[in-house]
Amino acid sequence: EQGLLKIERRHRQRRSMGTGAVLLCAWLLSWGCRAAPERLRYAIPEETSSGTVVGPLARDLGLSPADLPARQLRISSEKHYFAVSADTGHLYVSERLDREEMCGDSASCSVSLEVVVQNPLNVFHVDVDIQDINDNSPVFRRAALDLEIGELILPGARFPLQMAQDPDVGSNSLLSYQLTEIPSFRLEVKETPNGKKQPELVLEAALDREKQSSFQMVLTAVDGGSPARSGTVQIRINVTDANDNAPVFSKGTYEARVRENVPTGSLVLQVRATDADAGSNGRVSYSFSNVPDVVLAVFSIDSDSGDIRSVGILDFEEQKQYNFGIEARDGGGLSGHSQVHIEITDENDNAPDITTLSVSSSVPEDSPPGTVVALIKVRDRDSGENGKVWCELEGESPLSIVASSGSSYKVVTASALDRERASEHNVTVVASDRGSPSLSSRTTLSLSVSDVNDNAPVFEEAAYSAYVSENNAVGAAVLRVRARDADAGANGHVSYWLVGGSAGEAAAAAAPYVSVEARSGTLYAQRSFDYEQCREFAVEVRAQDGGSPARSSTATVRVFVLDLNDNAPHVLWPTAATPGSPGSPSVVSGPFEVVPRSAEAGYLVSKVVAVDADSGRNAWLSYELVQATEPALFRVALQSGEVRTARAVSERDAARQRLVVAVKDHGQPALSATATLHVVLAESLQEALPALSERAAGAESPSDLQFYLVLALALLCALFVLSVALAVAARVRRA
Predict the structure, then answer these.
(1) Does some domain include residue 34?
(2) Residue-wise pLDDT tens digits, 399-445
(3) Is 402 left (phi over 0), alpha (psi -120 to 50) or beta?
(4) 0.70 exceeded by pTM
(5) 626-631, long-range: CB < 8 A, 24+ apart
(6) So what's the pLDDT on residue 693?
(7) What are the start-end ranges of the H helices in 114-245?
(8) Are residues 384 and 446 in the same domain?
(9) Same domain, yes or no, for 502 and 472?
């Protein structure tokens, strides 16, 4: 009882020291988390009930409760032991925590979590240490241990006993052994090379089978937890006759290295033990000694040859090494023991595992380079070079992949996006390890590019020309302009507007010449055009899209008015003619010309001067003598309109001659006018006066005739000057 009290005091001291160490570690972890918020660490005991708060995760990440709905704090992990409260942002336990089930016999146990926040997208790493509690009692593999000890065994002989197994770690798994007091035996504990305590039964006094042929005792294993837990095994000793040599192994510890995934039945190691006895006492059989179930699941030992072979799948990722004991027992019941250490070497048998943590459904095409569009996590269960992973994107795309913290990668835009060239990008993420041969995994990401108004409408032509005949109908279609916008939706819907125009000063104050339909871009005439008033004009049409802000472009439309033959020739000299239709010219009276009777053929009598407001062929004039008192006496030049004598004037010719000259244009149909010229054949004006006096009543007096002659000369001079001025102005305008 005193011994048990001392052991309990030592356990209490260890627990107090362990509690202080845990508090100190928790304080250091909390301080470290504030200093480096990208990696947080919490600690919590195992078997903590579901719903227990582990720590203020949102506060440690610098998030307030108001930020939680927008930032979408969540855990992205394959293990679902923990969850995050959507209201407070606390990290809490969601499932039962069993450290032994989660981490086995590992000295430390932690769960790594990937914490993802949105807007902006980021990932944080959180480690939760699972602290061991003393929830497992030491357990012996067998309920009873039978030993056979020869009576000739000398005092001091040692007999290894079965070791108890405690799944707990740390102080909770530190075992101490107690043995019920037997005068002939005592208990000693020996530490093995791998740090475990091996109980050994030591013979203190010589045995005498004739006095006592058997012994029974109880071996108790007590762990270091608080409160302490214990387990027992009954030891039954049978004293046999003389077999004074125990088997001896050739090595105290056997070591071997074997690659994972070796075929079942492969030879891993061969152990050998010898016994100096003869017969059945020297015949050795091999077996495992004090091995856990995990060893029995993957290894077997041949009892006769000592061959250790694989019977299960060796997986480096599950167990990197195995340490267990073996026993060689002879026919007389004596046994020898040795240790086996088998190291499993890694092979590249695991391809990288790609997990998409977050991906954007669409990205605006004006996103700057470096915009994060997806966040992925890559993990390879292999170790060393086999577990080192690098990622790349297959194919050509405006995206690239960059490493983030830990094993996370970000897919970002590498260059400007253009929805008009590609509205969607499908990229393949390839994760490869550095093993030989290399293993790789692939996953495809789809990214939609949303439209922004980055394209202005573009006209099919920079400048348009339209030709419209004058006297057109009001509302007639003149021309249709068309512009295209590469954007989509409202950003690509084009409307048309008139910006302005030029049609001369005379038309500046008038109503617009044309209008444009906003939807189709068709230009319509707002009035009937007159070539003589406006020969051409230009307007600017603006094409504007429906984006915000709107984009626009302009094109110039130049409208040329085509001339029609709608003006008859106008006679300036000798008189102004009245227009008439073809075949029915109007006749106008005119002044007299005096021609001497001595005039020869070719004498210039007068010149008929006429103009046409039309242009081109419609303004080309030709002159023709259609009526004369003496048709053979006069002729008219076809192009110039000059009236000359066709022959010499004779005395037989009448003193008074009346000439009717027709002026015709070249339009279709042709329009014409006539001019009447009176000619008096006389040597002088005084000689012509009698002829003039014979004119009908109402004719002009000689003074009136002189006035008309002077006026005609002045008009001819003015017409000449005006023609020169118009010609110069036309040339300047063309230049």
Answers:
(1) no
(2) 899 988 878 899 999 888 888 888 888 889 999 998 888 999 999 98
(3) beta
(4) no
(5) 626/585, 626/660, 626/661, 626/662, 626/674, 627/658, 627/659, 627/660, 628/657, 628/658, 628/659, 628/660, 629/654, 629/656, 629/657, 629/658, 629/659, 630/654, 630/657
(6) 57
(7) none
(8) yes
(9) yes
